[in-house]
Amino acid sequence: MTTPHDGLTYRPLTDADTPAVLGLLTASLAGGPTGTRTAEFFDWKHRLNPFGASPGLVAEAGDGRLAGVRLFLRWEWRTGGRPVPAVRPVDTATHPDFQGRGVFRDLTLRLLEEVAPEAELVFNTPNGNSLPGYLKMGWRELGRVPVAVRVARPGAFALGARAALARRASGPVRPVRCGLESAAAWFAGPRTGLAELLRERAGAEAADTRLAVRRTPGFLQWRYGDAPGLDYRVITCHRGGELAGLAVGRPRRRGPLTEFTLADVIVRPGDRGSAARLLKEAARAGCDHVAGHLAAGTEAAAAALRSGYLTAPRTGMVLAARTPSGPLPEGRSAADWRFALGDLEVF
């Protein structure tokens, strides 16, 4: 169903729009996390998501050009065992010829109305430029999600950090090397012990009222094993021949530095020793430093200090949220969530 407004037609996104949407996103936001926006990545993210296909709207001009696009990524949190269906505003762009006409706002508010019957929560991590616009549309800033850092190569890290602060090059760009097994290969294998590990975690977390994603083998394979172009790697540890823990991250360039972005750490309930082993192994991935969010109360957070991880001051993503129909109740904060960085990483 189409709705004309201000000379534009707002309608649902269709498969046939993909090439034009990719072109518009590239023109507005460059190549994204993989460097190039491909139909394969778009399909993985928006059509193969185990939580469901992404709802999307486009604004179309009379000559057939796309004036704007807005997509919400489906997500599912759980609290105390109860599912909380959610959406995350993600890929959005407005064609330069149509900027300043409220296209972004119209697309966002219309899509909120569309998802209201099926989503309880809308969340995202806007940057400093986009946050004011979201606040005007009913989002509430809930605080920062802190990032813990472990320096792995002190000399290289110091040189890169100084170069970053001075906004200058630190020398020749070094390739990012990482000898860890690829997530694609690991998840394509037998994954022995993973289902049991995740069942134990789910049982231990059932009474936790914080919002968290219930990790299943299928979800983890989609999120890390099947992600095209993101180069996720896997670290495992075993006790008595059984899988005791799993960590997932990806090597990447971060300005003049190389970073191992630690997306997920999963261990058996109470097993701080395995968490420490995984955290230390991440620092041996070959990058200058490791960065990740270690949620309060988790085994990884308890093992952080003795594994060399410190929370970096004045860093971390800003969390903002609302319901589809209006603002969140007062008193909600980022402490109501139990995140892994992979839940919030922009991908």
Description:
This protein has 347 residues and is an alpha+beta fold. Helices cover 29% and strands 29% of the residues. It folds into 2 domains: 139 residues, 3-Layer(aba) Sandwich (Aminopeptidase), CATH 3.40.630; 168 residues, 3-Layer(aba) Sandwich (Aminopeptidase). The chain is built from 11 helices and 15 strands. It is globular. It starts with a strand and ends with a helix.
Keywords:
Aminopeptidase, 2 domains, single chain, 347 residues, seven-stranded mixed sheet, 15 strands, alpha+beta, eight-stranded mixed sheet
Summarize the structure.
This protein has helices spanning 18-29, 39-46, 103-115, 131-136, 154-166, 183-188, 194-205, 217-225, 272-282, 299-303, 341-344; strands at residues 3-5, 8-12, 56-60, 66-79, 82-94, 121-124, 140-145, 148-151, 181-182, 233-239, 242-254, 257-267, 289-292, 310-311, 317-322. With 347 residues, the protein is an alpha+beta fold. The chain has two domains: 3-141, Gcn5-related N-acetyltransferase (GNAT) (Aminopeptidase), CATH 3.40.630.30; 148-315, 3-Layer(aba) Sandwich (Aminopeptidase), CATH 3.40.630.
How are the SSEs ordered, and which strands pair?
Elements: E1 3-5, E2 8-12, H1 18-29, H2 39-46, E3 56-60, E4 66-79, E5 82-94, H3 103-115, E6 121-124, H4 131-136, E7 140-145, E8 148-151, H5 154-166, E9 181-182, H6 183-188, H7 194-205, H8 217-225, E10 233-239, E11 242-254, E12 257-267, H9 272-282, E13 289-292, H10 299-303, E14 310-311, E15 317-322, H11 341-344
Parallel strand pairs: 5-6, 12-13
Antiparallel strand pairs: 1-2, 2-3, 3-4, 4-5, 6-15, 7-15, 8-13, 8-14, 9-10, 10-11, 11-12
